[in-house]
Design a protein that fits this description.
8 helices; alpha+beta; disordered N terminus; flat; 8 strands; 3-stranded antiparallel sheet
Length: 219
Amino acid sequence: MDNGLITMERKSLILGGSDNPAIYAAAVRAAEEVKVAYQVANYRPRNIQQARQSLVDVCGRPSFALLAEWERPIAGKKLRGVSVRFMEEAIKAYTNIQVTKTTVYEDAGYRKIVVKVIDLENNISYEDESVIQKTVERSYLGDRIAINQRTNSKGEATYLVCATEDEMLGKTNAQVSKMIRTLAKRLIPADLIADGFNEAKKTMRNADAVDPKTASNKI
């Protein structure tokens, strides 16, 4: 059984060709954390019914139910689904799921990360990787140097500039959260997710019925 330990044979694969000792040390540390998590899971097995009830209870709070749905307009239509916040709560409710994020390569132009979600009880895991460019688009250039420039849909100039440390942190965290949401949906039973999401929508309908003025203002 692979408990996430990193062997020397896998070192080159994990590092993606990088010899950065800091990256390797982070990968080893993450692997050791997974090993400990496996041991803890053996002593505290999950209870499916308790997990379902925990998620339903959280989705019964109007303040959280408001955050449970993800929505984005694309090509004149609205795509909807469970949000990052919802899946974070689902992971906590389901218990014994370990999430790791490892930077496997980094240079001046981009950062490559691998996110892995592990079911510690069933020894099932899913992982994905993403390359994050160290650039951001800004409508105001200021004292920054533009790498490239384009005209957006409003006819305004948009500049591509090098990302600051804070901007890279924001980009990385946002991408990691989306990856975790996608991977966790493959591990957590679909009916458990559906029960929680339906409860969140029910909570919002009830809240809107009690306070229609607020619901109208929200729209």
